[in-house]
Specification:
Blueprint (H helix, E strand, L loop, with lengths): L5 H16 L14 H11 L10 H11 L9 H29 L1
Bound molecules: calcium ion.
InterPro entries: EF-hand-dom_pair (IPR011992), EF_Hand_1_Ca_BS (IPR018247), EF_hand_dom (IPR002048), S100/CaBP7/8-like_CS (IPR001751), S100_Ca-bd_sub (IPR013787)
Protein name: Protein S100
GO biological process, one term: response to calcium ion
């Protein structure tokens, strides 16, 4: 593949991360989804700097429950994307605040 831009690369990383933890049910043709167990694994391995309580099973289960819109007990790509948006939004705010404080101290 031709060289990617940073944004294209970031999207690929997010998609690859979903593929890494999701699986397809062997008995049906449903799209790939992440099980609760694998979701907890993903939180503690991949998001332990950005989210607190990633090792806390109860907190992880609450997050799964909040994200699991169709209540099938598994996280679809769309539901995973909601998590990414939920993380990105406060981070964007922190970055803007840091930029503001850098401007004020210059
Ligand atoms: Ca679901």
């Amino acid at each position: 593949m031709a060289e990617c831009t940073e944004l294209e690369w970031a999207v690929q990383v997010l998609v690859n991360n979903f593929d890494k933890y999701s699986s397809r049910c062997c008995c049906c043709k449903n799209p790939r989804r992440i099980s609760k167990k694998d979701f907890r694994k993903m939180l503690s391995r991949e998001l332990n700097h950005m989210l607190t309580d990633t090792g806390n099973r109860r907190a992880a289960d609450k997050l799964i429950c909040d994200l699991d819109e169709n209540k099938d007990g598994r996280i679809s790509f769309e539901e995973y994307w909601t998590l990414i948006g939920g993380i990105a939004s406060p981070i964007a705010q922190i970055i803007r605040q840091q930029e503001q404080s850098v401007k004020h101290t210059k």
